[in-house]
Amino acid sequence: MKRLTTLFVFILMTVFAAVYGQVKVTGEVVDDADEAIKLSNASIMLLRAKDSILVQHTRADPSGKFSLLRPDTIPYLLIITYPKYGDYYKTIVEESDASLGTVRLSNVSQLLEEVIVTGKIPVVIKGDTTEYDASSFAVEKNAKVEDLLKVLPGISVDASGKITAQGKTVEKVLVDGEEFFGNDPTLVTRNVRSDMVDKVQLYEKKSEEADRTGVDDGQRTQTINLKLKEDAKKGMFGKTEAGAGGDTDRGFYTGTLAFNKFNGSQKIGLFGLTSNDGTVSLNWEDSDRFGFSDLSSEVSDDGSVSFSWRGDDMDYWNGRGRPRALSTGVSFADAWKDSKHKLNTSYKFGIIENEEESSRIMQENLLDAVLNSNEESYSKAQNQKHRFNGRYDLKIDSLTTLTVSVGATVGNVESRRSQQTNTFDGDGNQINDNIASQHMQSDNLSVDYSAYLTRKLRKEGRSLSLRVNGNRNETSGEGWLNSTANFFVLDSISEIDQRKTMQSVGNNIRTSIAYTEPLWKRLSSSLQYEFSRGVSTSINNSFNQVALTGEYNELDREFSNDFDFNTTRHAANLSFNYRSELLDANLTNNVRNDELYQVNNYEGMDLSRSFLTYNPTLFVRYKISKAKNLSFRFNRNNSLPSLMQIQPLRQNADQLNIVVGNENLRPSQSNSYNVSFDTYNMLKNQYAYVSLNWSQRFNNIQQNILIEDGRRTLSYANLDRVANTMSVWGSIGRDLIKKQKVRGNIFFDATYNNYFNYINGDLSENDNIDFSLSLNFSRNVKKGFDFSIGFTPGYSLLRNSLQPDLNSNGFVYRGNANLEYHMPWKIRIYSNLNYLYQAPTRVFTEKLERFLWQPGVSKKFLKDESLTLNFFINDALNQNIGFTRQQNASTLVQDRYNTIARYYMLKVSWDFTSMNGGKE
């Protein structure tokens, strides 16, 4: 820890010492015809004279005066602009302070039509849109859009490709107003060359709902639109990459080939990947960048369905084990007849194999005792999946739009797992142990579908919309379980040797119809009716071995079950929307009637219940100014109990933990409150935001625990105590040294979580508190020394009322540094460092420390610098150990697991393209 802190302090001292003297340029902007008219907010820009690169930008104050800094003594061009006035140009060459005195601008009505003044304006603000002239900002040769965005005022890009503009996260990057491939901004920013771009436009895009219905719901998405040059609107680009290396035990490899071709609206994408270095879907930088976004659905416990475009477990690796991956896919998108028809489809196939070794230590706090246990486990799994997604948009006429989506996934999972668990009392006496092994194989099918029809009616703001969403999920499989548990207190042994079969089917459909009506200019209303139906079947059978035949066909009724679980919902929404220049407000009143019907087919028992609930939502946003917002949100929600909570599917895979359901469970309620404030100053490239959150959970469904002879029986119940979660987080960021492009950010985060359950009949109150403060400094100009450095100290408190002296409170420290030096001959030397420290606690007496260092060197080749050779050492100090600490009610848990540690690799990559940047 001392080594890393010393290194960070040295780097900071070196950077902040490199500050040069700067010279002021001052003046006053007035109307040429009447000097009493001060042109406040006139735009003043300082450009390098040799290449018109913007270096400084400010606006005149209310008295028309301005002041900005000239970084050095080279010639500069000063441009002053004001709406409906002619532009002012002046070359600045003085080596001392430059006072321009009074600058008079002439109204365009007074200018001669024959006089034409030409020149590039780097930044133009048109209403709510900020437009940048791409050629006015310097980037290195063969740079991508991401590199261009990093040098634009008010925009920043982090190492993962996340874009922040005017203090808000950019969620969409469009090309000529349309999505490029998929919905990931990095698709565009890391593939399209910056010299293909004419203009960069930044604005807040209305929601799809608002565009389609004509009713402004106040929802906005921070969006960047790239306007390409005319000769850069068709072509192809791609990437091929191959790497090989190894450690002392085995070799490492990675290989990627990706290709995209587009011609106007038609886009085709292909990719293939294989690796064993943790890259499971393209690589972490290129996730979804070649147009393979995925339509997924989620079915809640009450049977309702929600849909989103996202990936799944085939698209990422959680850092546990050592995965091997093979993945390939193809995508196609097109639009025709003036975009009246739009089609977007993709297919992907992938295989992931992983081996994981892990160990766990746990402490269970009781009122008058403590139980300690340890577990060792090994698992090997293979996941194979085919995935198809399609979306078709039809603009029937100028008022009617239809969208149809479908997604299908077919997969197979095979896993083997073995584990050994031992439980001890507080004096170290062993209570029980369990040795178990499982082998499972399952086939999975999922189909999702949706249709969304909107119709704008003749009166502005009046519309009708219809939605249909549904999905079907099927799972079938077979497996084997062997388990031997010793209960030493009872002097008994329990042995299990069984074949398992499982089959589950779920069908869900949701339909809704909504009507919107403008009440007057700034107030509109919406009335919606929703019907949803979920039908689920789950059959889990266990078979013992028949001694005479050796076959596993004797049904074990105790650990076999056959359940049907059906839900029906009728819901009505009445909402009101108010929008003005200063205030946005929404009130939604939701009334639901949910009917649950459950059948236990083996026992011949059924259960039906219904719940009527009210779920209101209130949102208010006050626009203090265009750059400052204050908002408040309240939400009340009722959550129904799930099938598992009402009547758990009884299993015996873990003989030391038995789950029991409760058919008398009631819905739980939650109230959530949020207050947030954000502000942004474009001229200073400074932002700040803060968010306060509080949630209350009533009748919370929680697990109570009964422990007898070391065996835990977990049962669900509605608790009469109110659980609370409170959090505050925020950030401030600004330029620290403009000339050196050094930027600083401060982040703070604090969370308090309080909840309850019962342990052996005693009330257990659990408190989790986490807070941290982060300081970050960065410079990214692709010349000389670039860096990104972060320091994040924090403290974590895990406390339980039954044993308040046995907690897991401890100091946590995180640090990171990404350093790179750009040398001549297109050589880059870099070093990536990540440090994590968790202090010892009363429960876990060992400190956890991990210092990851990845040094490397790369060199670019070819005239366009598209070929790169890169050598690096992953985890050079061989300290990458997997570990986590957490609290689950009264149980404190620490996990250790294997992961990818030190290896070296030589990688070669080639970015190829036929798309030209256009001539200046």
Describe the structure.
With 920 residues, this protein is mostly beta strands. Among the domains are: 21-114, Immunoglobulins (Immunoglobulin-like, Sandwich); 120-232, Ferric Hydroxamate Uptake Protein, Chain A, domain 1 (Beta Complex), CATH 2.170.130.10; 258-364 and 372-443, no CATH class; 464-720, TonB-dependent receptor, beta-barrel domain (Maltoporin, Chain A), CATH 2.40.170.20. The chain has a 26-stranded antiparallel β-barrel. The radius of gyration is 31 Å and the shape is globular. The relative contact order is 0.09. The model is unreliable at 7-21, 111-118 and 282-312 (pLDDT under 50). Keywords: Cell outer membrane, Membrane, Receptor. Residues 455-910 form the Outer membrane protein beta-barrel domain. Residues 414-433 are annotated as: Disordered.
